Amino acid sequence: MSTVFTTRFIRALIVLVVLGVISGGWVLYGLEKAHDAGVQITTSSPAVAQAINQSAITSAAKKAVPSVVAVASKKTTKAPANPFADSPFQNDPFFRRFFGDIPDQPRERVQRGLGSGVIVSADGYILTNAHVISGADEIKVAVDEGREYDAKIVGVDEGSDVGVLKIEATGLPAMPFGNSDEAEVGEIVLAIGSPYELGGTVTMGIISATGRAELGITDYGDFIQTDAAINPGNSGGALINMNGELVGINTAIFTRTGGYQGIGFAIPANLARRVMDSLVEHGEVARGWLGVVIGQIDENMADQLGLGDTKGVVVSEVTEGSPSEQAGVREYDVIVRVNGRAVNSPAELRSVVGTTQPGAKVELDIIRDGKPLKLAVTIGKAPADAATPAAGADTAEGVEIVTGLWATDITPQVAEKLQIPPNTRGIAITRTDAEKLQASMALQAGDLILQINRQGVTSVAQAQQAIKGSRGDAVLLLVRRGNVNVLMTVKK
């Protein structure tokens, strides 16, 4: 099974665990029952439960449950107005018999959801998921004692799926933060929240894995995986250790049925805390930035780059004036670690860098021309507008330079059609055959091939010569799409 197919399949089965309904009344059952639901501990592993100190579990649960709240959100949207308002059939009796009276004015539709949250300060700051509260017109919070509060949104960060609420209260039971960086696989954890409107529910499991990325849940950050039962309504709830400390914010599950199947994901508490602090202090989250375009390394690319394995990510472009350029990072460098942490995919590097505070100094372990090298980089602040690859463009037929890929010289006519400067170096892709072309990434008409096997090309004839002289059955391409350079391999 291909990596791409596996990743897409996994993402299709990831479900955010907020309980949502469309109705005419507040979903208050979970709010009203949160205070008298008690501590309900469940586990899918009785043998494990017997081996654990029962008093430690009970102590952690009793300490943490009062800090977890139910969060009810309300969002009003307008349904479309009568689409037949200007139709000549609007007043036709036959038409009206089938469609009835359709209102001319837009109708309001109320969406309601129920999730969870964690009190993290005695004066009313609450951590939850962005998807629980984003866009809500009205939010109510119910604490363990049964009291209800109106809550206001302090901020949401869609990139990490962290949201922060504030209620006007004092003396609240704040949950202490644990150090999620020290969370270990096999460690016992409890998940606390309001699944299916059952407030105060506690489930038990272990940490199944850490550092889970490329799940398609968020753009930044990785996840703690757990087998503690997480169900709809648990979104924004707490994942705690046996000291009753917050180690994660429960966010999503992997499921084929829509319910719990033993795989849940939580945002690490350290990341959630950094995002919360930034939202509270600045109203936004500043992302770390290296200023490189990177690509995945497959076996063909590893062979072309002279690498012994496919670990790390390869740099295809270094942004002018960026932190990476200032630190001496070059095209074709392979980044294998950031501050000692291994990175084996673009998503992992983006997560590590994006969640690093701008201004922080990090050490990059790279491989350049087969030799290890360390570079010190000061992380910059990510610009608001990221470069976006341009859409493909049709050009002349061109010449088939590898199986399933046609290209042409960049003539003034081609440059005009592609809307690029006439003196642009490289050759332009004119057509691809997806059934024949074997490439590590999708190519499209309008992409520019700048280099083949690390050598610049300015004509199709030059490209054919470079391909003919390359060893093996694959060639390494540096391709430009819009304002982004990408490294990839294609089979001859």
Describe this structure in words.
The chain has 492 residues and is an alpha+beta fold. The chain has 3 domains: 13-80 and 106-285, Thrombin, subunit H, CATH 2.40.10; 288-381, Pdz3 Domain (Roll), CATH 2.30.42.10; 399-491, Pdz3 Domain (Roll), CATH 2.30.42.10. It is 19% helix and 36% strand. It is built from 12 helices and 30 strands. The strands form 5 sheets. Strands 24, 25, 26, 27, 28, 29 and 30 form a 7-stranded antiparallel sheet that branches. A 6-stranded antiparallel beta barrel has the order 10-11-12-15-14-13. 43% of the residues are buried.
Search tags:
19% helix; 36% strand; seven-stranded antiparallel β-sheet; 3 domains; Pdz3 Domain; elongated; Thrombin, subunit H; 12 helices; single chain; alpha+beta; 492 residues; six-stranded antiparallel barrel; disordered N terminus
Please render the helix and strand layout as text.
Layout: H1 3-12, E1 14-16, E2 19-22, H2 29-33, E3 40-43, H3 46-51, H4 54-64, E4 68-79, H5 93-99, E5 107-119, E6 125-129, H6 130-133, E7 138-142, E8 148-157, E9 162-167, E10 188-193, E11 201-212, E12 223-226, E13 238-240, E14 246-254, E15 264-268, H7 269-282, E16 288-289, E17 292-296, H8 299-305, E18 313-318, H9 323-327, E19 334-338, E20 341-342, H10 346-354, E21 361-368, E22 371-378, E23 380-381, E24 399-402, E25 405-409, H11 412-418, E26 427-432, E27 448-452, E28 455-456, H12 460-468, E29 474-481, E30 484-491
Parallel strand pairs: 3-11
Antiparallel strand pairs: 1-14, 2-5, 4-5, 4-7, 5-6, 6-9, 7-8, 8-9, 10-11, 10-13, 11-12, 12-15, 13-14, 14-15, 16-23, 17-18, 18-19, 19-20, 19-21, 21-22, 24-25, 25-26, 26-27, 27-28, 27-29, 29-30
